[in-house]
């Protein structure tokens, strides 16, 4: 009887594995993006990376909602992020724009990927010391998912222009290194985690989501470029307001 009780106690609800399953699906999406990139399916590769970004935002919230957070889940999420936001975007951009750039293109890939891993390592340390998000709802440096989104800008521009060579490899390499530097920088960036919306504004926000969905379905690359520009503006705005707060 005691053996049966011990077995029952060691069982766990299947639903508690859902966050880890979402993380693994995100990892599969990132790996699939690499494969598609080197097969010349660049639009599909970009979509896979964006899917991984969306899933990354879901797994942690699911874990907290289901109260199934675990050290293994945290480690799995961090390792998946290194692939999805460090390795996959860098290799896809390299396959798209820099295979003919000899060693210089590969150096840009290495700088970006290593910067992303360093960013994730710093985030993990900050999370354990409960300082992941500074006061005022700000991150320190560009988060890894946002960095992956930013580094795909040359592809968005090329897709919108209908010209694979729209952006030169030299510019792409320099831009990739710049995004890597932003990830490991101490620049404050905006965090949505502490954003609050007034109840009377919820209906307008939902209508905005409808327009956003319509824009993504009809003009996906132009919409994503607009998002990129808006995020860059938010970086400057967050830095400016932080400087103003310190001056006061």
Which key terms come to mind for this protein?
248 residues; mainly alpha; Four Helix Bundle (Hemerythrin (Met), subunit A)
Topology overview:
Blueprint: H1 2-10, H2 18-38, H3 42-66, H4 71-98, H5 102-128, E1 138-140, H6 144-151, H7 153-161, H8 169-184, E2 188-190, H9 202-218, H10 220-247
Helix pairs in contact: 2-3, 2-4, 3-4, 3-6, 4-5, 4-6, 4-8, 5-8, 6-8, 7-10, 9-10
Q: Can you walk me through this structure?
A:
This protein is mostly helical and 248 residues long. The protein has a single domain, classed as CDP-alcohol phosphotransferase transmembrane (TM) domain (Four Helix Bundle (Hemerythrin (Met), subunit A)). Helices cover 76% and strands 2% of the residues. The chain has 10 helices and 2 strands. It has helices at residues 2-10, 18-38, 42-66, 71-98, 102-128, 144-151, 153-161, 169-184, 202-218, 220-247; strands at residues 138-140, 188-190. The chain has a two-stranded antiparallel ribbon with strand order 1-2. Helix 3 runs antiparallel to helix 4. The longest helix is centred in the middle third of the chain and has 28 residues, at 71-98. It is globular, with a radius of gyration of 20 Å.
């Amino acid at each position: 009887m005691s053996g049966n009780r011990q077995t029952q106690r060691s069982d766990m609800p299947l639903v508690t594995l859902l966050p880890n399953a979402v993380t693994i699906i995100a990892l599969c999406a990132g790996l699939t993006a690499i494969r598609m990139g080197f097969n010349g399916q660049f639009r599909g590769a970009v979509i896979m990376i964006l899917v991984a970004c969306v899933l990354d935002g879901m797994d942690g919230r699911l874990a907290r909602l289901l109260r199934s957070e675990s050290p293994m889940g945290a480690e799995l999420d961090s390792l998946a992020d290194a692939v999805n936001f460090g390795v996959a975007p860098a290799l896809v951009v390299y396959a798209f724009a820099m295979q003919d750039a000899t060693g210089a293109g590969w150096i840009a890939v290495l700088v970006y990927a290593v910067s992303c891993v360093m960013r994730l390592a710093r985030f993990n340390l900050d999370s354990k010391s409960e300082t992941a998000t500074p006061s005022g709802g700000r991150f320190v440096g560009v988060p890894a998912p946002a960095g992956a989104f930013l580094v795909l800008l040359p592809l968005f521009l090329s897709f919108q222009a209908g010209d694979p060579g729209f952006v030169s490899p030299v510019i792409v390499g320099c831009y990739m290194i710049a995004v890597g530097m932003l990830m490991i920088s101490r620049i404050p960036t905006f965090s949505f985690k502490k954003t609050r919306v007034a109840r009377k504004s919820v209906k307008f926000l939902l209508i905005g989501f409808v327009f956003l969905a319509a824009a993504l379905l009809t003009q996906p690359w132009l919409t994503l470029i607009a998002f990129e520009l808006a995020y860059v503006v938010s970086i400057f705005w967050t830095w400016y307001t932080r400087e103003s707060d310190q001056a006061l």
